[in-house]
Each structure stands twice: as structure tokens, then as C-alpha cells.
Amino acid sequence: MIKLKNILLLFGMALSFGIQAQNTYKNWPDVIRKNDAAWFGTDEAKNIAENVLLYQREIGGWPKNIQMQNELTPEQKKDLLKLKKTTAETTTDNGATCQEMLFMSKMYAQVKDDRYKESFLNGLNYLLEAQYKNGGWPQFYPLKKGYYTHITYNDDSMVNILNIIRQVSEETDYFSIKPSKAIVEKAKESFRKGIDCILKTQYRQNGILTAWCAQHDEVTLAPANARAFELASLSGSESAKIVLLLMSVEKPSPEIITAVQSAKLWFEKTKITNLEEKRVLNDAGKVIDKKMVVTQNAAPIWARFMDLSTNEPFFCDRDGIRKKSIEEIGAERRNGYSWYSDSPKEVLKKYTAWAVKNGVKITSKESSESQKSNRITVALDGSGDFTKIQDAINACPSFPYEKVTVFVKNGTYKEKIRIPEWNSQVTLIGESKENTIITFDDNFSKINVGRNSTFHTYTLLVEGDDFSVSNLTIKNASGDNGQAIALSVVANRVQISNCLILGNQDTLYLSGKEAKHYIKDSYIEGTTDFIFGSATALFENCEIHSIKNSYITAASTPEGTAFGFVFKNCKLTAEPAATAVYLGRPWRIYAKTVYMNCDLGKHIRPEGWENWSKPESEKTAFYAEYNCKGEGAQNAKRVSWSHQLTKKEAENYSTENILKDSIPNWYSGQAAIK
Asked: Which is one GO molecular function term here (predicted)?
């Protein structure tokens, strides 16, 4: 009898040890998701729950990347108690807060400890409070400076939140804790707004809806950068979970149906079926190298980062320089990051059943043909549809309903090109900005048609509205021989990105009394008044390069116009010979030019601005700076009639305010064409 008792005792100890051993996981998410329901009533689970309660801040959120199952020392517990009243590092990134709420729900289902219930409800309130008015969520709340304020789909952050909000709003049994009716109503509205935000942030590429980016600007909803190696791009990974969320909505609206259809087509278009990832592991099972191997008929995968204009996969190291393959980046980023994903295969697998259930016709062939007809390729070697860019423009439909893309392969195109008014919605994309070059050499004297000869000197003239150009060089090659325009824009809603605009005097002409233009991530060089005109234009993250001593801008802003030329986060550089350059002078007396958060080189003159022998313009023109740095930012020595903006004044210079037009958010690629 004693022997039998001992056997039973030993068996019980082994069983108890086995239960604890199989539930002692290396990673905190494993503790939450892989334990049987009954385990959440054990002493081990209760001990872990005490840690989770300690890590939760009073605001309701938790920090990320904490192994909460690890035992805490008395000193660590004291430190955590001090942090509870703070909001240090509360986030939804990497599953934080969402996973802890799930843990507390599982605990409460087994142990009716009111602290678990309050913890869950606090977390829910945190999620509801953190939501932006437009329906998105930041990565950190309260807001943390930097890219953390962007609407964050990265690592499925916003999808995780919305899945919780939906369970609450639909009063399902997924969570053991039942909020009040008032909270349920808040959750319903929160979910509606979240879905609306998703629909509004779906990226429109050349007029066609595609997928989503890992981050979107919280104000403009435009694609946004995060860390140096996380540049704005279409995401093959995060987009999949977003689409699956939309597909799970009962009785989807026409807008949701369109979003799912468009994303599915994009997944079909961008899948990679000739590459496989091969991992090299060390003895401990850690990845020490990754390689992409060419394989016939490989299972489909998608790149995590794809170019916003061309869908071409790219890869970045911590220097932020785009590469075409993971082999070109360092081992730390190559092996420590997920560059490819097969997540979209779940969308493709479920799509047909979803379509049948919701009465959606499968029209992928028709959509494919539509996309094909709206794309024209130009190549000097004859491999495209045309060998000249102007011929491609002439072949574009007049006043089309959707964007028409003209893709230009590498080469030097010696053409004088005009985009007429009737060729609206043209997107001109080069294969690369350094090697796709449009060049011509007209100048004032060569044209010689009278006092207005300048306006006939262009290399590229844009008259059609809703034009965009990227990834190429536009050059006036006449040299320093007087007025000679490289790019002339007399249309509305024109976007210029990742371009080199090269010339001397009058390089870039931006016209139109009510016209709005957005120039970003580009290099512009010239001599005298090399950025001039009457349009409202926002320059962002550009390099403005002066070749000799002269003037950068010559705005002719019409009277009563709210904004003229605005430079944000730009770098002003110069040739060694240029040592005395003015920020601007007024071509017309109501000129407006503002530099904000710019790096001004030492070539900028201390007085900054010049009146062009028009003393009256000192009372009518508006020249200002805000928070600029560099040797050229000599605020105290500026002319008395210029301005240094206050922080409150600077807040008015938002992208939305500067570029506001009849088509909302036209500059972010999100606006529907009317």
C-alpha cells in the first residue's frame, strides 16, 4: 500500500512537472496562444498574470517585446510600480497590448479575479482612446515623436486592434469579459471608422487601386517612411492581413468589395514564382545567412517592399539606400528581417468562396486587359511600343477616366516633349533617374521669337492636369547661355518625385494662378531664378543646388494667394564657386516663399532676400523661414522685411493646407478621379 502511494505521488509530481514544462515557453506570445484553457487556472499562470498586471501602465497599455513569463526580482517589481503612473513606451507594435488583453481574458475565464477584468477593460479603453479621428492608430500612444505617429499597419498592428474591437462590438464570446453597452457602442463606431481609414489609405497607382503601405501619414494618408530600411512602399505582407479582415466583414459595402477585388488583382500581378528563400542555420538553429535561389515553379511569394510606381521589389540596409536584391545588403539586415512573405496566398485561396458568397463576379481577365491598355512602354532599342516619348504621348487617350502610364526604359532621349491639355492623367515613369534622360538645348537667344522666348525653351512642357513624373532626368543642355527651361508646368495637380531637374537660368517653371504642385525627393539645379512662377508648390526632401552666385527663387505669386513656394526638409547646396546666393527675389511684388526645417549651406547670403529693385515689394511680398539650420541660416542678419515664423504660424503650413484642391488628397495617390 505504501509502495502504491509512493508510485502515485511520483506520478503526480511528474504530471505536475510535465504541465509546467510544456507551458514554459521561450517567447511570451507562445504562452498566450499555445496553452490549454485549463492551464490559465494554474498557479504558474497566476504568477505570470501578476507580472502582466505590473507591466500594464495606468493608461491601459503595455510596452512591447517583454518576456512577461520570466520571474521578476523584488527590485524589478519596485521599478515597475514606479512606471505604472507613466506612459513610457505604451504601444500596440509587435502585438503589444492586444496580446496582453487576450491573456487577461483567458485568465478571467478560469479565475474570476476582478483585477483581470479591469486590466482587460483598461486595455480596451486605451485602444479606443488611441484611435485617430480618421480611424487609424499610431504605433505609440500617447504619441511619440517621429515616424511612430504614422497610421501603422506594420506587423499587423492596426488589424490586430480592429479584430479586438470587432469582437467587442459584435458581443461575441471570444473574450470572457463583457464590456458595458456604452463601450460596445463605442466599439461599433471605432470599427466603422477603422474600416473607413483602411479604404481611404488603399494606394491608387496610376489611377488603379492596389494594396497598402506599412505606414501612412496620419494627416494626408500618403505612404510614409519609418526606419531607415523601411521606406514608403507597397507591402506584400501587411496588405494580406488587411484584405483578410475586409473579407471577413459580413454584408460588405460596394467600397469594401472594390478594395478586395483590387487588392486580389494586385497580389496576382506581383507574385513571384521563380524564387525560393534558402536559410543557412548554425548548430543552435539560428539563421546566419539567407539567399534567394532561382527555382522553376516555386510556390508564390511576395516582396515586403515594392516600389510605389512600378511594384519592383527593393531592399534596404540601415543606410536607407535601395537595392535590387537581399544579397546587396549587409548580413545583419539580410538575416534579421523578413523580406518576403507568402501571406497573400491565403487571400487568393479564399477569394473565390468569398466572391461567390457575396455575389461578386470574377473579372480578373477584364481587369488585366484594362490595365494593359493603360500602359505604354518607350524604349530606344525598339523593345517597347514606341522609340520616342512624344509618340507615346500622342498615343494616349484624350481626357481618360483612368491614369495612363508611359514607362520609359533607360536611354538618352533627345526630344522636346509636350503633354497637351487633353492628355490629362498621364504618369511618366523612368526606369532609373540617372539613366533615363530627357534632354534638349533650346535657350532664349536660340528661340528668338521676342520678349516671351523664355517660355518656348522648355525640354518638357506639361499642360495636362493630374500629371506625375518620377525616376528620370529632365535636362536643358544649352549651358549657361541665358534663360532656358528644363521643365515647364502650366497644369494643375502635378507631382514630381525622385527626379533630376537640370539647367542653368530658369530651370523649373511652375505656373498657374490656382495651380498646386508637389515636388519631392528630387534634385534641382540652376543659376539665376532657377525656380520661378506663380503656382503654389510644396518642395519636400529635395536638394536645391546653386551653380553660381545669383538667386534661387523668383516667385510671381498672385495677390491673395495663401501660399507660394514652400520648401520643407530641403537641403540647399552649391558649387564651390557659388558663395553668395539669395534665397529669392520677387518676380512680381506679391511673391511668397518660405523655407521650413531646411539645411542652408554657407553659400546663402546673410541678408537672405533681395527686392529686385522694387522697394514696394518689401511691403507686399512674404518671405519667411522656420527652424532652418546650417551656416546659411543667419536669422539675425536677414533683411528686416522678411519673417521668422512662430511655431503656431508654422503649423498652418501643413501639406493639406498648402496643396488643398477640389480633389482631396490628390498629392497622396488616394484621391478618386472625378
From this structure: pectate lyase activity
8 A C-beta contact, residue 68 and residue 51: yes
3-class SS string, 91-105: ECHHHCCHHHHHHHH
What CA–CA distance (Å, rounded) separates 154 from 140?
12
- Point out the least confidently predicted range of 15-24, 68-77, 272-281: 15-24
Sheet with 460-462: list strands edge to edge: 417-419, 460-462, 487-489, 508-510, 531-533, 551-555, 582-584
Q: Specify the length of the chain in residues.
A: 674
Q: Which pLDDT value is given to residue 348?
A: 87
Give the CATH number of domain 22-199; options: 2.160.10.10, 1.50.10.20, 3.30.1540.20, 1.10.238.10.
1.50.10.20
pLDDT band, residue 415 (cuts 50/70/90):
very high
| Fold: same for 22-199 and 202-372 | yes
Please state, in angstroms and as integers, the Cα–Cα distance from residue 197 to each residue in 40, 168, 200, 575, following that order.
36, 19, 5, 46
Helices (H) and strands (E) in the chain, counts: 18, 36
Architecture of domain 202-372: Alpha/alpha barrel (1.50)
Compute the average pLDDT of residues 473-481: 96
Q: Can you tell me the distance from the alpha carbon of 363 to that of 649, in angstroms, rounded to the nearest whole number?
A: 51
The CA R_g of the chain, rounded to the nearest whole Å, is 29
Q: Which of 270, 310, 303, 306 is nearest to 430 (CA)?
A: 310
Q: What is the mean pLDDT of residues 474-496?
A: 97
| Distance from C-alpha of 206 to C-alpha of 309, rounded to nearest angstrom | 8
What mean pLDDT value characterizes the chain?
Answer: 90
The candidate with the shortest Cα–Cα distance to 469, out of 417, 512, 517, 430, is 430
Name the active-site residue from 307, 385, 529, 599: 529
Q: At 226, list the grid cell.
A: 519609418
- Cβ proximity of 170 and 190 under 8 Å: no
Mean pLDDT of the region 610-626: 96
In contact, 244 and 347? CB cutoff 8 Å: yes
DSSP state for residue 236 in the 8-state scheme: T
Q: Is 529 a catalytic residue?
A: yes
Distance, first Cα to last Cα, the chain: 89
**Cα–Cα–Cα angle for 233, 234, 236, rounded to 5 degrees:** 130
List the grid coordinates of 136. Answer: 487609424
Backbone conformation region of residue 536, classed left if phi is above 0, alpha if psi is from -120 to 50, else beta: beta
Question: Would you list the domain boundaries of the chain?
Answer: 22-199, 202-372, 405-668
Taking CA atoms, 67 is separated from 2, 61, 434, 667, in Å, by 43, 16, 48, 43
Give the DSSP letter of residue 7: H
